[in-house]
Amino acid sequence: MRTIAFRLRFFCMVMFLTMAFVGSGYAQQTNTDTWKNETITLRVSNTPLGKVLEKVAEAAKAKISLQGVTLVNIKNATTLNVKEKPLYEVINDLIGDQKVKVRYEVNRQIIIEPLEGPKEDSNKFFISGVVLDKETGEPLIGATVMVTDGGATSDRGCITDIDGKFSLSVARKESIRVTYIG
Question: Is the pTM of this model over 0.70?
Answer without folding.
Answer: no
